[in-house]
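We give its fold:
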Amino acid sequence: MVDMKVVFAYLSKKLPKYAKTNIQNVSLKFPDKRFVLLVDHSQNFNFGSRNNVEVIRLPDPSVSWVSGNDILRGHENFENNFWYKTIARFKLIENYMQMRDESILHIEADIVLNQNFPFAKIESIEKEFAFSLINQHQGIASILYLKNHHAAKELLKFAEARLRENPKYTDMDILGKLFNLKRKQVFILPTIDSGSFLSMNANNHINRDMADNFNFFNGVFDAATLGQYFFGLDRVHTHGFVKTQVYLPHHSVDPRGLKLLIEDKVVSVTVSDLKVEVFNFHIHSKINKLFLSKEKIIEYFIKEEKLSKLRYFSFLAFYNSKNYILKHQIRKVAKFLKLNSN
């Protein structure tokens, strides 16, 4: 039996510092695992002497997939859109799995894994797809298991069908549709505990779905909510002030009142005398030091009471947010000039 590969997919001419830091550290943390970085460009990446990270260059989806594909033409400014990259990685992954027909676990580059991350249990999943839900309408590919190449091909085909319905669908919308339309093929990675103390409404049917497999893992995955709450929102939208402890009501997980606890390198969230192990954190703020050594960084945040601060300033976040806005404005001007030149 071929071991499940752990796959990162990155569509960009430059691998961000946080992504490289995270890949380096996760490969050290799990030296017996095989990691693959999929890219669509020729830039060389040096991960030092680590031999458990393989970098594979695949055809650029903007050429191999978008070009000449009528399904994708309706998406406004598709190739320059953030959501293009999140959906196009499905094509990158499908290309890889066509070469190697084996199970994979796709992990986004801003996901930090706990030392007790349950690789073996995920690998034992019999269904074609496994991922977490944000709410009843949206899934998330932050941690995405695909059984084989057939599953990857079906996911890409399903994504194209949904984009034909609505070209503004995101990858999260598409995964939500996949769960609701093909439930028998989808295994939900739990984000809510069996007692539902991580949810405001334990009787909500979608919350029961999100907790359904908790007893199989005896812990939860952070789809997005916990990482945003404890470590800040995506920095390109924060103008330098990285906001923590922000409650997002459209998320089914309710993190308000939770605290972090570390015991023997196992990270848990607690409230009163209740405790639930967390297998990963989704670090939306993408601040590089948060990827250096997870347990130490979390201990620092707890000790220095950083988690009690609703806002703290990051120059890097300020720079990236302004850079993001400038690029967006340039694209709008370029589009306007193109339309008026015809």
Q: What stands out?
A: The mean pLDDT is 82. Residues 202 and 208 are 7 Å apart (CA to CA).
